[in-house]
């Protein structure tokens, strides 16, 4: 491991400390904690007339993290492979869905001899890397079924992977370089999510994704800090949008938004490599993101970043999903399955109250105030952000499916609607505290259910984390990631092709540049056909 480098330029804004971070379990290993040297970057808007040197700007510090050449720890590399498999799994299940087909059609209008591959098609089909990032990003995100991180802001850091694979394939990078890049992307997005809340000001979480992809691509391509700094600024400037994509009648743009951020970051890096600059200071400027879109001119945030020379381990603080549903519903689906044993007759339920964190209550609970979350005619994207709906279905079915659980016929059953409308959520300060606490042993994304029956009797139970969480009852290991891929790829990808992809993915760190194009899979032709789609401009 490279020694921690001193950086006297940043001492007035940063202080070094050690942070305990959780390590996700691997086969044959128990959960443990590892100490990582962290520098707290204090970021605030500059005062009128003040000139903030770029070395004291957050974008520069992020670029320094990206350009700090540090080996990837073995457990981090293992988890990168897990998440590549996880992304492929959910992409396979979404290939035939309309938003994914549209994105694929747009990408196919940008064929390129030396380019990147599209999930579902053979590696003989190549498109421009930014369009591969777009199409594959939509496929990965469409079912809301890959990994998550929750802190001051929330994130799906697996969204970093499609643009990085696309650029790596196009540029002839090695598997080792790609693993380092993905580790950087996770590190930057997780650290930004720890320090800066976007949703508090109704800004969509992909505003942290644009900079993280740009940083990861800087690592991948070995770019100078100056170039990465400019790319991060452009990526942030262009990917800052409102949260309406996750509010009200949620549309397919929820799947497109991260793919747009990834595509935009690829283009930003390309411009920066050609010598173009970006708005600066992008975070701290008087008209910058913090002063105008977030907490305002008097704001101050603390973003924890690994000290120079320290390994990038943030991916181990993230967690994937066992169910195709917004992450904060994962634990409640598990709890609903457990409660079914004590609720033999759901018609006797008079009310169900969910005591949970502020964020869960406000985003997927009744605190959101969205009538769409009660509407059986709502879009799939809306239903997977309605805790009330998902609890009702989990209680009734005792199982979960990424398509059948959201089918219009399923959502419109009278008994489901009746149960669904008996469920409300409330914020509980203790669950809010545990949502934000730094101690991984205390951090929780669940809550307590109080079920009142028609005779006034009460059934209560609670859950802190989902079973699949690293600290849950059945943590995901490599075997579960592989099983998830095989389950979701069944009837989509042939058994031989599944085997080939998994073998390639598990050798990721050792893949030669000419082997990276194999980091995908071919699917049944009828699932990837775009000929019947409506025509667009190109």
| Rounded radius of gyration (Å) | 23 Å
CATH H-level homologous superfamily name of the largest domain: 2-methylcitrate dehydratase PrpD
Straight-line distance between termini:
49 Å
Strand share of the residues? Answer: 5-15%
Specify the overall morphology.
Answer: globular
Which class of secondary structure composition applies to the elements? alpha+beta
Poorly predicted runs of 5 or more residues: 1-34
Estimate percent helicity: 40-55%
Please give the count of helices.
Answer: 20
The CATH topology name of the largest domain reads 2-methylcitrate dehydratase PrpD
For the biggest sheet, the summary is: 4 strands, mixed
Query: What is the CATH level 1 assignment of the largest domain?
Result: Mainly Alpha
Overall mean pLDDT stands at 91
List keywords for this structure.
four-stranded mixed β-sheet; three-stranded antiparallel β-sheet; 2 domains; disordered N terminus; 41% helix; single chain; 538 residues; 2-methylcitrate dehydratase PrpD; alpha+beta; 60s Ribosomal Protein L30, Chain: A; 12% strand
Sum this structure up briefly.
It is built from 20 helices and 10 strands. The chain is of the alpha+beta class. The protein has 2 domains: 16-317, 2-methylcitrate dehydratase PrpD (Orthogonal Bundle); 327-463, 60s Ribosomal Protein L30, Chain: A, CATH 3.30.1330.120.
């Amino acid at each position: 491991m490279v020694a921690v480098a001193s950086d006297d330029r940043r001492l007035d804004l940063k202080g070094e400390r050690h942070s305990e971070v959780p390590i996700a379990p691997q086969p044959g290993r128990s959960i443990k904690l590892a100490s990582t040297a962290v520098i707290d970057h204090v970021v605030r808007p500059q005062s009128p007339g003040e000139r903030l040197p770029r070395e004291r700007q957050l974008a520069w510090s992020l670029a320094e993290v990206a350009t700090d050449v540090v080996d990837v720890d073995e457990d981090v590399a293992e988890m990168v492979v897990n998440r590549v498999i996880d992304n492929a799994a959910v992409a396979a299940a979404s290939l035939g869905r309309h938003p994914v087909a549209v994105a694929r059609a747009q990408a196919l209008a940008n064929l390129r001899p030396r380019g990147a591959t599209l999930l579902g098609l053979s590696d003989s089909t190549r498109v421009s890397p930014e369009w591969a990032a777009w199409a594959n990003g939509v496929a990965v995100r469409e079912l809301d079924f890959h990994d998550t991180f929750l802190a001051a802001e929330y994130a799906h850091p697996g969204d970093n992977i499609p643009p990085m694979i696309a650029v790596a394939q196009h540029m002839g990078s090695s598997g080792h370089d790609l693993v380092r890049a993905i580790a950087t992307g996770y590190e930057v997005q997780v650290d930004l999510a720890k320090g800066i809340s976007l949703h508090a000001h109704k800004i969509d979480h992909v505003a942290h994704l644009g900079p993280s992809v740009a940083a990861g691509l800087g690592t991948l391509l070995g770019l100078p800090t100056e170039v990465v700094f400019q790319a991060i600024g452009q990526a942030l400037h262009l990917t800052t949008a409102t949260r309406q994509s996750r509010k009200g009648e949620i549309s397919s743009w929820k799947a497109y938004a991260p793919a747009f951020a990834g595509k935009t970051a690829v283009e930003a890096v390309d411009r920066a490599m050609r010598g173009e600059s970006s708005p600066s200071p992008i975070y701290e400027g008087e008209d910058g993101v913090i002063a105008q879109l977030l907490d305002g001119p008097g704001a101050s945030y603390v973003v924890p970043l690994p000290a120079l020379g320290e390994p990038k381990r943030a991916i181990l603080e993230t967690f994937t999903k066992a169910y195709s549903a917004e992450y904060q519903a994962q634990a409640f689906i598990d709890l609903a399955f457990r409660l079914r044993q004590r609720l033999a007759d759901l018609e006797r339920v008079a009310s169900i109250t969910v005591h949970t964190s502020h964020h869960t209550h406000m985003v997927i609970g009744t605190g959101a105030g969205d009538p769409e979350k009660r509407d059986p005619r709502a879009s799939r994207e809306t239903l997977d952000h309605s805790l009330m709906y998902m609890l009702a279905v989990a209680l009734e079915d005792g199982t979960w499916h990424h398509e059948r659980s959201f089918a219009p016929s399923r959502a419109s059953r009278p008994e489901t609607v009746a149960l669904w409308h008996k469920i409300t959520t409330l914020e509980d300060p203790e669950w809010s505290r545990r949502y934000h606490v730094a101690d991984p042993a205390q951090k929780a994304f669940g809550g307590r259910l109080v079920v009142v029956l028609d005779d006034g009797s009460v059934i209560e139970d609670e859950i802190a984390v989902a079973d699949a969480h690293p600290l849950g009852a059945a943590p995901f290991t490599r075997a579960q990631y592989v099983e998830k891929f095989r389950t979701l790829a069944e009837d989509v990808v042939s058994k031989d092709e599944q085997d080939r992809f998994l073998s390639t993915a598990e050798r990721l760190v050792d893949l030669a540049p000419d082997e990276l194009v194999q980091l995908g899979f071919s699917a049944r032709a009828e699932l990837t056909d775009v000929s019947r789609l409506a025509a667009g401009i190109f």
